[in-house]
Design a protein that fits this description.
alpha/beta; Rossmann fold; two-stranded antiparallel sheet; globular; Alpha/beta hydrolase family protein; signal
């Protein structure tokens, strides 16, 4: 009898493993190409509402501001992963996401609160983290803001993917819906953002298990300790990249958040301009490449992502293509050797550095 139950357990375990690693559905597109599909959040879901108190509206200056994007390239073998980008649409970044075989969406959700509610010092060391979580989930985590479920990132992302699965069958978007069709399959989701968006991505991934987190120029929230909370997402799935001239780095904000997240367990801080891919399998990547700008710190803040501030070589091509691909595709099981906390990184940011 024990042998029978043991065999049943092994069969069940094997079935679970096969299901978890099942290949993504192939495309059957008669005219394969890269698609950039747009839709307005207010039209996809009639429950969606404006929240002008945190600059969360559907139109600005007479133009739609709730336009969302879904991008996929049916010419590229699919990875079966969905990137949710938590900042304004970045066409050059999405070109690469699609080129990697990933699906990508950019959703319009209540993220305009930051300029209104980010007051220093915060009332406690979880204040901004709770607001981020409410904006992401639409659940009641913070007394400082009231965001209903239809206006949170989770529901906006679900509604957009559901819309895309109906309107764009070539893209096989339905693979990212949960089995019951009532939400997303978060095990296939890569959360990503820059600055404010990278910080919310990290906070959300502590709450909700996801496939990976890609953090550009962040996370920040340098006066908070939510980074140390138990994480639903394994920490080896968090990847970060920034420029050293970014004030978030020079002010020890990023090194602090990376250490509090425990990313030192997966390798040292690696300069990608001096160490070739795979960068020692580290999760903490920096660049000190020359920034040509009248405002180097501001330009450096955007230099971590493809676009106008990204750094180019003498040939006019971006020098960090390998870095961007690594962040999104590097196998999570391959990690660097653990290192101790950096004693020179200032953890207690409540005491300002002397200039």
């Amino acid at each position: 009898m024990k042998q029978k139950y043991g065999l049943l357990f092994l069969v069940g375990l094997l079935a679970t493993s096969v299901e978890a690693t099942a290949a993504p559905p192939p495309y059957h597109d008669p005219a394969p190409k890269k698609y950039d599909i747009t839709a307005r959040a207010s039209e996809i879901d009639p429950r969606a509402k404006e929240h002008p108190e945190v600059e969360f509206v559907f139109t600005k200056n007479g133009k739609p501001s709730d336009v969302e994007h879904g991008v996929v390239d049916t010419r590229v073998a699919p990875q079966g992963k969905l990137v949710i980008w938590l900042m304004g649409y970045n066409g050059q970044l999405f070109d690469r996401i699609a080129g990697y075989g990933l699906h990508g969406i950019q959703v319009h959700y209540a993220n305009g609160w930051f300029g209104k509610l980010n007051k220093e010092p915060p009332p406690d060391d979880q204040h901004l983290g709770r607001i981020r979580l409410e904006a992401a989930t639409g659940e009641d985590f913070s007394k400082a803001i009231e965001i209903p479920k239809p206006d949170g990132m989770m529901e906006r992302a679900y509604q957009l993917v559901k819309h895309l699965s109906k309107e764009h069958p070539q893209g096989k978007w339905e693979q990212f819906l949960s089995k019951d069709g009532k939400g997303l399959d978060w095990s296939k989701v890569i959360m990503s953002g820059s600055s404010h968006g990278s910080t919310t991505s990290a906070r959300f991934a502590l709450h909700q298990k996801v496939d990976r987190v890609v953090m550009f120029s962040g996370p920040r929230d340098q006066l908070e300790r939510w980074y140390e909370l138990p994480s639903a997402t394994e920490k080896n799935r968090f990847f970060a990249f920034t420029h050293v001239l970014d004030t978030g780095w020079s002010g020890d904000h990023y090194c602090r958040s990376w250490q509090l997240l425990g990313l030192n367990k997966f390798g040292p801080v690696v300069n990608v301009d001096k160490t070739p891919v795979p960068f020692g399998n580290s999760r903490r990547l920096i660049t000190d490449a020359e920034v040509k700008s009248k405002d180097p710190a501001k330009t450096a803040h955007g230099a971590s992502t493809p676009g106008g501030s990204a750094i180019k070589g003498p040939d006019g091509k971006y020098i960090h293509e390998d870095v961007w691909k690594y962040l999104f595709l590097h196998p999570v099981e391959k990690v660097g050797k653990p290192v101790p906390f950096d004693p020179d990184c200032k953890i207690d940011q409540t005491v300002r550095k002397k200039k």
